[in-house]
Amino acid sequence: MRRKVIPVIIFAVAVFLAGCGNKNSEEDKNIHVDTNINNNNVVTNNIDNTLKEEKNTGSKETTKENSTTKPEESNNNHKSSYSIDDYFKFKENVKYSYAGTNSEYAEYVTYVDYINGNKVQLRSNNGGTETVTVLQNNNGEIAKKFERNECYYRENFTNKPYNVSEVLLKEPLVVGTTWKLSDGSKRYISRVDVKISIGNGDCSALEVTTENTNGQIDLQYYAVNKGLIKSIYDIKTMKVTSTLKSIEENMRLNQSIRCYYPDENYKIHYEDKKLTFSTNDITKIAIQNLFKNFPGNNKGQLLGKNVTINSLYLNDDGMVYIDFSSNFVKEMNAGSGFESAILESIVNTIGKYYGVNKVYITIDNKPYSSGHIVKAKGEYFKVTCE
């Protein structure tokens, strides 16, 4: 049911969060400002080597910082005059497209699934897989709190228990601000005024360096009002880059769903339909509307016009749980054969969309029961499609 996992750069780790209020959270005890970082130590050496290779490949990336510049003469090279909120602005229904080099998976697009207070859920698609990430803006830091790979269905994870904790950017936004990651890697602000070429011209960016425990050096660049504009991953013998190409407004996420339905002889057919989502749209409502209006000939319609889906989600036990209103069976008004065909169609459609083979159907939170079919508590329906 699932697509093959493809090893890719984690591309949804830092984008576009803004205007979020702060809530109390545990302060990162590893954060400090390293005042010994200057133009002659490891920060500059790592960056200089990277920039030399970038320059040799024709990049327009440049820096105003050099070994002869005094901090007081060029203060912008050491301290940003902006806050995290300025770098992580974001709007609903915006599509961010990134061009890539040295890997077919370095090119990707990102949509905003949900905004919930000081948290945002992002969906990134690189053509091989989709990754969903939840970021939180809290106490002067942007942190990744939740991540799910191979997530081809749409669900709100902003209130799910955290499964990761990775600080992406931390105030104060000055050269030398440093923090440790959970795997022991070191991450720090290495420069605050770097010229980066993106799709619509050049912009000034803040540079964050990550020294991984395996010796790999990664760079991320953030620009005011744009968020993440460039990533450089040092993959042994080559550098894989992703660079912001365009920002498009009033864009919706389109997903394909295979919708199954029965004919008058109870034979199951399917058609691939399109679901369109704006930021914060509720998935169960989109599927409910689809079931009520498909296939559109009043034969094999999966839901009666007054039926609602009370809840729909993928549980940690690997089953999708779907709860219908109490009038589900009454409005179906079907004999045993046709009822079985409708249930099989619903189960196949939901199972295929979520990538599972078990669907648990309840009616007003009670096990499914009709005059023809009775399920015990916890007894699920099995997906039958390939």
Descriptive overview:
The protein contains 5 helices and 21 strands. It has helices spanning 42-56, 84-87, 283-293, 328-332, 336-354, and strands spanning 32-33, 62-63, 94-101, 108-116, 119-125, 130-138, 141-149, 166-170, 177-180, 186-198, 201-211, 217-223, 227-235, 238-249, 253-262, 268-277, 309-314, 320-324, 358-363, 366-367, 381-382. The longest helix has 19 residues, at 336-354. Strands 1, 2, 3, 4, 5, 6, 7, 8, 9, 10, 11, 12, 13 and 14 form a 14-stranded antiparallel beta sheet that branches. Mean pLDDT is 82; it is low at 1-76. β13 and β14 (238-249) form a beta hairpin.
Would you kindly provide a brief summary of this structure?
The protein is mainly beta and 386 residues long. Helices cover 14% and strands 38% of the residues.
Key attributes of the depicted protein:
5 helices, 21 strands, mainly beta, 5-stranded mixed sheet, 38% strand, 386 residues, 14-stranded antiparallel sheet, disordered N terminus, single chain
SSE diagram, text form:
Elements: E1 32-33, H1 42-56, E2 62-63, H2 84-87, E3 94-101, E4 108-116, E5 119-125, E6 130-138, E7 141-149, E8 166-170, E9 177-180, E10 186-198, E11 201-211, E12 217-223, E13 227-235, E14 238-249, E15 253-262, E16 268-277, H3 283-293, E17 309-314, E18 320-324, H4 328-332, H5 336-354, E19 358-363, E20 366-367, E21 381-382
Parallel strand pairs: 18-19
Antiparallel strand pairs: 1-9, 2-10, 3-4, 3-14, 4-5, 5-6, 6-7, 7-8, 9-10, 10-11, 11-12, 12-13, 13-14, 15-16, 17-18, 19-20, 19-21
